[in-house]
Specification:
The chain has helices at about 5-10, 25-70, 80-95, 110-120, 125-135, 150-160, 195-220, and strands at about 75, 105, 140-145, 165-170, 185-190. It is of the alpha/beta class and about 220 residues long.
Length: about 220
């Protein structure tokens, strides 16, 4: 984002600043803007499917085996990504179909989050919870649009030390999350638009959930 929020907003919604009272012209600009955004997210989703389709299936298979062994999932993120992390946990724990799977969002307990932030530092709000709650072969899913959140990097390092399966969702070019070795599966939505990144990440974790549910049947049949 630039130093001028008004300019950023104008670039997203130019039809609001067109200075015209021509309703048809405004509606045409709204339609063109909407179509452009839809085209962008479709292209981004197709790119992720092309680059990461096989890895998504591999990750889901590993997650299914972990759940079958009684393991659980921890999701975490900041801001809008915290909301998405809550969506991840809710999706696995209370699915529209399939088997409910144990999942927890690490931003849900505001007392814990504020205690750790106040007493130690915000960088450890997720790492400390994983240290207390996580066990080997549990699943740690962290979401960030920039990929640069220090508390996610610290959480993945802690999760890796404890033998958790680590899954990261990032935007842009992956940021710091693409530079560390502690993430087993990193899925990058290669866009500079936070809006498109979050839309693509929502699609990604829904695909992971569906593939995991599908893999659960195969895991059960093989045992």
């Amino acid at each position: 984002m630039s130093q001028d929020p008004g300019k950023d907003f104008q670039s997203l919604y130019p039809f609001l600043y067109s200075g015209t009272s021509d309703l048809e012209a405004v509606l045409s600009e709204v339609r063109d803007s909407t179509v452009q955004k839809v085209d962008e997210i479709i292209a981004l989703r197709e790119e992720i499917a092309r680059l990461d389709g096989a890895r998504l299936a591999e990750c889901a298979g590993r997650m299914a085996r972990a759940f079958a062994d009684g393991r659980k999932l921890f999701a975490f993120g900041n801001g809008g990504s915290s909301t998405d992390a809550q969506g991840v946990a809710s999706l696995f724990l209370h699915p529209a179909w399939g088997e409910p799977l144990p999942a927890l969002c690490l931003t849900n307990d505001i007392a814990v989050v504020t205690a750790l932030s106040n007493d130690i530092g915000f960088d450890v709000v997720f790492a400390r919870q994983l240290a207390a709650l996580g066990n080997a072969n549990d699943i740690a899913v962290g979401l960030s649009t920039s990929g640069n959140s220090e508390n996610l990097v610290r959480a993945f390092e802690e999760a890796s030390r404890r033998g958790l399966i680590t899954v990261g969702l990032a935007g842009y070019e992956g940021g710091k999350m693409a530079e560390i070795e502690e993430i087993d599966y990193l899925f990058v939505a290669g866009s500079s638009s936070v809006h498109r990144i979050q839309e693509a990440q929502t699609t990604t974790y829904h695909i992971l959930w569906e593939l995991t549910q599908a893999a659960m049947s195969s895991v059960a049949a093989a045992r």
